[in-house]
């Protein structure tokens, strides 16, 4: 799971300045319902559950979805799927524009049965952008519902990626991850981190694969992508961001960002305008 913000046990989380209520608690107005919203920085929805499924996507910024035992990140190339009856809370550290597609229980049978992050294809992203740009549409109109049915089909076939930035509660590995969360520019090798923790490098290698499902180097690159996104949206220069993240030159950062996201930092910045 990924590290969350403040208190994850309910109520208003630490550091949250804006508290938004959930739009529906008892019933959906239609079997499929789409909504988009702008969220200021440090905003949160309350912890809640509902009998329908929810697909959460962020057009810009980073949405986070907190469960009782896990925490999911949704940068713009990923989305989060929540099956019915999963207790969760949505929050964001930085300003974000996001959407939710609510899906009645009967239509969730072909969708993942567990909470997961999903890759968002260019076609799915384009359809979600179309929905955002036509928020005045009649939600009950047959054409609108047919369009949403196609979106549901794309969600059902989207590759599952678990959680974008996994976490570990292993006492040794967690210290390493927390150190990098605080200082993503830390360029020490895994062997050096192991020495600081008084353990062997091969022990950390095994625990990374066991708890994170990926090598240490990939996790660190994903962390840097997550840290870079709000800086790009804040119009920081690529030179500034690359230095803040520990790169000796901007080209190395650009190459990593494009490899991890499929777009250059400038392309990502333009996509969030």
Task: Describe what this molecule looks like in 3D.
By secondary structure, the protein is of the alpha+beta class. It folds into 2 domains: 18-162, Jelly Rolls (Sandwich), CATH 2.60.120.280; 171-271, Arc Repressor Mutant, subunit A, CATH 1.10.10. Helix content is 38%, strand content 19%. It has 9 helices and 11 strands. It has helices at residues 122-133, 142-157, 171-182, 190-197, 201-212, 216-233, 238-244, 250-261, 265-271, and strands spanning 18-19, 32-39, 43-44, 53-60, 63-66, 71-74, 78-82, 89-92, 96-103, 116-119, 160-162. The strands form 2 sheets. Strands 2-9-4-7-10-11 form a 6-stranded antiparallel beta sheet, covered by helices on one side. The protein has a 5-stranded mixed beta sheet with strand order 1-3-8-5-6, with no helix packed on it. Mean pLDDT is 87; it is low at 1-14.
Overall, the morphology is: globular
- What is the N-to-C succession of helices and strands? EEEEEEEEEEHHEHHHHHHH
CATH superfamily of the largest domain: Regulatory protein AraC
Remind me, CATH topology of the largest domain?
Jelly Rolls
**Share of residues in strands:** 15-25%
* CATH C-level of the largest domain: Mainly Beta
Q: Please bin the fraction of helical residues.
A: 25-40%
């Amino acid at each position: 799971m990924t590290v969350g913000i403040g208190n994850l046990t309910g109520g208003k989380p630490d550091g949250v300045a804006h508290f938004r209520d959930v739009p529906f608690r008892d019933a959906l107005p239609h079997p499929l319902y789409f909504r988009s919203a702008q969220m200021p920085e440090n905003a949160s929805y309350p912890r809640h559950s509902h009998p329908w499924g929810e697909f959460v996507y962020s057009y810009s910024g980073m949405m986070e979805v907190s469960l009782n035992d896990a925490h999911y990140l949704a940068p713009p190339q990923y989305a989060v799927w929540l099956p019915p009856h999963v207790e969760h809370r949505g929050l964001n550290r930085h300003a974000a524009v996001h959407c939710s597609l609510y899906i009645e229980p009967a239509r969730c049978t072909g969708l993942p049965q567990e909470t997961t992050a999903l890759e968002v294809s260019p076609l799915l992203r384009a359809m979600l952008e179309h929905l955002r740009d036509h928020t005045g549409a009649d939600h009950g109109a047959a054409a609108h519902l047919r369009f949403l049915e196609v979106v549901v089909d794309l969600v059902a076939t989207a590759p599952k990626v678990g959680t974008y930035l996994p976490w570990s509660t292993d006492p040794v590995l967690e210290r390493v991850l927390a150190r990098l969360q605080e200082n993503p520019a830390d360029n020490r090798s895994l062997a050096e981190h192991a020495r600081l923790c008084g353990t062997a490098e091969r022990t950390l290698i095994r625990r990374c694969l066991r708890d994170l499902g990926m090598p240490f180097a990939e996790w660190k690159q994903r962390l840097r992508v997550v840290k870079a996104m709000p800086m790009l949206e804040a119009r920081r220069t690529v030179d500034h961001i690359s230095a803040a993240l520990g790169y000796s030159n901007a080209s190395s950062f650009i190459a990593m960002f494009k490899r991890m996201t499929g777009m250059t930092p400038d392309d990502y910045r333009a996509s969030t305008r």
